[in-house]
Specification:
Layout lengths: L1 H26 L3 H4 L2 E10 L2 E9 L7 E8 L8 E6 L11 E10 L8 E9 L5 E10 L1
């Protein structure tokens, strides 16, 4: 009888420990899982260039730039291209999600309403590497 009482107490203690552990995991910040991510929220005409709204997160102390490039996909003329950058001092890197607008300047030919464009957004580091590429197509 005393052995079954001890087993019940041990089982109860194990259950409490499991619930406490699960609660700690559920309330722990998900920061590490969200770092260095990019999502393209919207692409819009900002004649003659484009405006790209992005949501990003990055590691504290990161010294990278956020870059956006665009290329017109359908055209009978020379395809329009554009590029824009958010410099290191414009990014907030603390694992949380942040929103920003990247204004892309058009090279030579500008973008016009109705153009179909491919936009690529990525981080660019000091060594010339790029990562976390996100690509979307949109009709302006």
């Amino acid at each position: 009888m005393q052995a079954s009482r001890i087993r019940r107490r041990l089982a109860g203690a194990a259950t409490v420990a499991a619930l406490v552990g699960a609660g700690a995991l559920a309330t722990a910040p998900t920061a590490a899982a969200k770092a260095n991510l990019i999502a393209v929220d919207k692409v819009s005409l900002d004649a003659p260039g484009l405006r790209v709204d992005v949501t990003y997160s990055c590691d504290p102390g990161m010294k990278h730039q956020l870059v956006a490039n665009a290329e017109q996909l359908t055209s009978s003329k020379l395809a329009a291209r554009g590029a824009g950058t958010l410099k290191v001092d414009k990014l907030v890197c603390d694992y949380a999600d942040h929103t920003a607008q990247v204004h892309l300047r058009a090279a030579a030919e500008g973008f016009t309403k109705g153009d179909k464009v491919k936009v690529t957004v990525f981080y660019f580091d000091d060594d010339g590497f790029r990562y976390a590429d996100r690509e979307v197509t949109a009709t302006l």
